[in-house]
Amino acid sequence: MNQTAFLFPGQGAQYPGMGKDFFDAFSIARQTFEEADDLLSFHLSKVIFEGPEDLLTKTQNSQVAIFVNSVAILRVLQQQFSDLNPSVCSGLSLGEYTALFASGRIEFGECLRLVYLRAQFLSEACEKTDGAMSAVLGLSSQDVEAVVHSLNPSDSVWVANYNCPGQTVISGTRDGVAAAVEALKAKGAKRIIPLQVHGAFHSGLMRSAEEKLAPAIEHANICKSTAAIVMNVPGDYVDEIHFVKENLRRQVTHSVRWEQGIRAMMKRQVELYLEIGCSRTLTGMNKKIGMAEPTISIDKVPDLDGIAELLFSYKGAR
User: Fold this and answer.
1) Which residues contact residue 112 at a Cβ distance below 8 angstroms, ignoring those fewer than 6 apart?
2) Which of 203, 209, 222, 285 could covalently link to 121 via disulfide, CB atoms 3.0 to 4.6 Å apart?
3) Average pLDDT per run of 10 along the chain, which is 318 residues long?
4) Which active-site residues does the annotation give?
5) pTM of the predicted model as reported, rounded to 2 decimal places
6) How far apart are CA 190 and CA 207, in angstroms?
7) Are strands 157-164 and 167-173 parallel, antiparallel or unpaired?
8) Sheet holding 4-8, edge to edge
């Protein structure tokens, strides 16, 4: 494939037992989980494989777990298909860090440390602010923006995620989100789903987390790469290291423009999208965006067969 995107999931995609079949089947995956356990000085893999779910779901565990699981699967993919390399990488929220690693911009240990700090700081901010998030279905993002801005003089609610057409997420104080929900229903939203999250991610309520994380991002050893990266805050390609770091920092409190980022890749004629990690959320979003090119999710070992078949057919066509 001339143009291939590697996509990585964010918080909320986790589930107990994710990655266990890769751990059992491939030494490179087992080594990845064990390396993370050693670097973190606790048995993260036990939490990932055995749960319980409420422990895995905690922000300080789920973010690190999703990152490690995605890297383990990525390494298996690279080992099994050595000629399959990304032309561009991107990730949803937390997944942006996996995209940095996958594109060759940062080493595993240093990226793991950043993800660990991010998770800790976000967890602390959530404990202090008692925020909420809701997914708004059946309204355009412009309509959601208009409602949010009309209710936002006191900075109580924000647009957190532009996921795909007809699916936008809002975030803020419980009162702010509740007021927005009523106004959005009046505007014609088909359905509004409260999200089971720890707090108000991608909102101004996470300011303390951004401030604490900023020095670690600034001092991180992030380098240039031949693989491009599409980042959440601009929803577009970012090249300069200074702007990569700036967007990593701003992502904590700013909107995730996922749909815009996918459309930027579509404009550059990306031919294949691989969702690497737990669940199949990003694959579903790509379908709703209306993408004609294939998106393949790699969550379980049998999913590798689909990659093999695709690459075989592609080579046969040539």
Assistant:
1) 36, 39, 40, 64, 67, 68
2) 209
3) 90 96 98 98 97 95 98 97 95 98 98 98 94 97 95 85 98 95 96 93 97 98 97 98 98 98 97 96 96 95 91 61
4) 93, 202
5) 0.96
6) 31
7) antiparallel
8) 236-238, 228-231, 88-91, 4-8, 272-276, 295-298
